[in-house]
Write a structure and sequence with these properties.
The strands form 3 sheets. This protein has a 6-stranded mixed β-barrel, surrounded by 4 helices. Strands 5-9-4-10-11-12 form a 6-stranded mixed β-sheet, covered by helices on one side. Helix 8 crosses helix 9. The longest helix is centred in the N-terminal third of the chain and has 16 residues. The chain is of the alpha+beta class. The protein has 11 helices and 17 strands.
Length: 400
Amino acid sequence: MRLLLVALAVASLAACEIKPPPPPSPPPPEHLELTPTGFGTLPGWTADDQSAALPALRRSCERLLRQADDRPVGPDAVAGTVADWRPACGAVLQASAQAGGPDGAAARALIETWFEPLRAAGANGPDGLFTGYYEPELRGALTRDATDTVPLLRRPDDLVTVELGEFRADWRGERIAGRVVDGALKPYPDRLAIERGALANRHLELFWVANEIDAFFLEIQGSGRIVLPDGTARRVGYAGQNGHPYVAIGRALVARGALAKDAVSMQSIRDWLASHPDEAGAVMDLNPSYVFFKEIPGDGPIGAQGVVLSAGRSLAVDPKFMPLGVPLWLDIDAPREPAGRLRRLVVAQDTGGAIRGPVRGDLFWGSGAEAGALAGAMQQRGGYWLLLPKAVAARKQRVS
């Protein structure tokens, strides 16, 4: 009887035990949501000089029109097919070919005639993070000397890059890289291993520069100009990456208390690295990603779409969600602008390792120190509208 009473008491206590709350629900998967609007809803639309973006749009149109009609534009043909773009792009090319090209009002009318805006949003709404990048200039040499001791490496011939979207649709926009060992793809050496000589004696040195911090930030920018001792300049661009994930060292510096979260910028990170030479190498090695370069003849830099970028009018986006070559209306915070907003027509022409999400952008500012100052200060919030050919926008309207 006593055992029965004890058992009943234990069961009673168990029934009264407070159960822990259920685990939080996982965040909704990221997706791109497009809502048809109208040009009258675009803030600042009539204040921009849209003709300044027309050269960038012309280059993207020329690239698109060299492809087959049935080729999708963007993941899951989010922007239709190349055939959908032929009438609008044809009008852009025709206008651009006229002497002097259209002025701002004519360019605006051209866009309004052939395109319709659709507001972009993700799982967290229409606002996202916008940063900037530029083409730096580094002094360097073709051979190692007493000053220039840091190599910029060309792409190794055993580096294999795999576009995962070619194997499964839900992996579109994702890629891995490695090298084949005994018939299997294995991880490539990370930054630390490469700096310790994992690729030594393979004659991969493209140029030599004096400063490892400059070389590190050249990798982040993806392209730059190397000024040689005789004063001539050579342009280098992205040729590949070792497949390891990009790690933002600014977050690591915030975590260790070296920088305040609201003070993180490209310049503040550079300043910290330069003032802590004994720690700089270890901090940069926290980013295992390593970028390889190639020399770019002629105009540049060249974006991921394969076209020359335009200062202030080319935007890097996440190709997992966004189509390359598409014009966008940008509306973001900009404390230095008179109205406190940066509102302009840009074109999605590039990508970047840190550019992830359906509402995320990296604005190209051009070359040199002034462009670097503008790019390094950008950590803004805002959003964009995709401008799609009217036939594509009409289909989106019917679906919505």
